[in-house]
């Protein structure tokens, strides 16, 4: 048994199994170890229902069923005052995963009698020289010759005859060789203690009794008879053993290959260490050379400056009385011969005059500051800080372009293929792309999740993003760069106005005033023929609650794909009042009887005012209007012909108030689809018009 002794070791106490229990994950653990772990964990969790309870214990968790399950059970007939079920989560030390033990905890676990018998045989082989003594002999005890399975005791020959006399029920007890491991003859169900197990659940892979199948936790599971399960599992186990025995040579070859791989790994790791050491030595040598050169330059500059200052100091020293130039001049004054004096005094006077000037305007001959020798190493420090070991074992993150969005902020999301728990953190880098700059100035941020929100981005700019994973000091290569464009102008924030021109009969507005819906009805569909004739009165209008008086602004929205017809754009406050009044007059019951109303001229005004301030969306299309050859012909409004394109998932509008221009964008890629001129002589408001079943989300 020495060859498989490690199979008999408990993963918790690291000793031979004692009364092992089978966990649902098919690992074994001592019964005492299970209790110790649970008691230790209960001490860590004083009150599972309190706020201070530690629900994330690494060993044991006791938690109530989720709210969804509770609601579901209440709908299925659970009593109002009944408590929610509690489940026991046990941390298996074998597989390092949490195991759900259900409501009854360890009471549903089976005792592994087969493993227990193997452990006992191993113990007996280990203590073969140690005899098992009789349990009932008076001291001194005799060596046991047999053990009774029914009595769970060992006896010598004399005591066995005394306690198992002929003609009694005990005489029928089963006796075996001396042992200390007694196990029951019949395996009983842990959930129904009076029932023996006689079936095998193929779903849970455990023995069950007939009550478990009739109305217990295995009622809807597929079961088989114990004899069938015994034969099936015995055949599978025998085949597996035969297969492994037949592959013994292949296993030995694998072991030899693994031995070579161990040596190769050791050699390669030493080689990698040597290469890394050489790389850093090269960098250190370069730094040492740069350091020596810098110190030599500073030393040379110092010597030159000291020489200049020393010379200047000596010159000023000569100006003192009886010293240098002054002493010499005093001696010249003693000359009595006029011609000789004049010959010498002229040159001396020039020198004294220069000395006088230098005293009056004293300036040091050299600077004492060495500020020009300060080195800026910020870029180099960043480069050295970014030095990391690359490893192919770490998965390269991939930026998810569908989930990564950019508006007034950027939300960057990425996925990490393979094992997600390999990484300690991620580093996200981003930079603004500029054509005139060849090198990219990356900014970076450490992230401990798989998404990051980035603020303070410039308008109308392209940004590149990339990410890498880190495990300690080891990092993965950079991901593929993803480029996103910011809106062409500052984001304009507003809500739908629920007062000005809002029709609650035809439009539905959510509480946040960010979504508006129009309901398709028979009157609206009957009036659709007016739309084709150029009349805008069949539309239901809604405006933004904030106006624009200057600058450049951008806002985005989404039109539901099944929307019938939507028009979007801007309109001035003056025209909004006229439009609301005209819509009110046209929908008033008196409008058809008012013979003095010039509906034709009003229709022309509405068409001329709104035609190119709005674009049409609907039926999963985006329609770009085109003007006729002579749009200024009197009495004939522009004949609009529409060019249809697929409707983007998100639309955007950019209003340049100062230049009187408005652009319509695909907000996902920030691509301009259509641009037109608008009259911005008044306060401009976002305008939306809906017809039939349509919906707009800001």
Automatic annotation (TrEMBL):
Q: Name one Pfam family in it.
A: zf-RING_UBOX
Instruction: Specify where the region named Disordered lies, as residue ranges.
Output: 45-85
The record ties this protein, via CDD domains, to: Bbox2_TRIM36_C-I (cd19778), FN3 (cd00063)
Cellular component (GO) terms are: acrosomal vesicle; microtubule
Which residues are in the Fibronectin type-III domain? 394-489
Give residue spans, biased composition: Polar residues. Answer: 50-67
List the Gene Ontology MF annotations in alphabetical order: ligase activity; ubiquitin-protein transferase activity; zinc ion binding
Q: Where is the B box-type domain?
A: 184-226
Q: Which PROSITE patterns match?
A: B302_SPRY, COS, FN3, ZF_BBOX, ZF_RING_1
Residues in domain COS? 333-390
Q: Where in the cell?
A: Cytoplasm, Cytoskeleton
Residue ranges annotated for the B30.2/SPRY domain, each copy included? 474-698
Q: Which domain of life is it from?
A: Eukaryota
One GO process term, biological-process aspect: spindle organization
Instruction: Give the family per the record.
Output: Belongs to the TRIM/RBCC family.
Query: What protein is this chain from?
Result: TRI36 ligase
Gene of this entry: Trim36
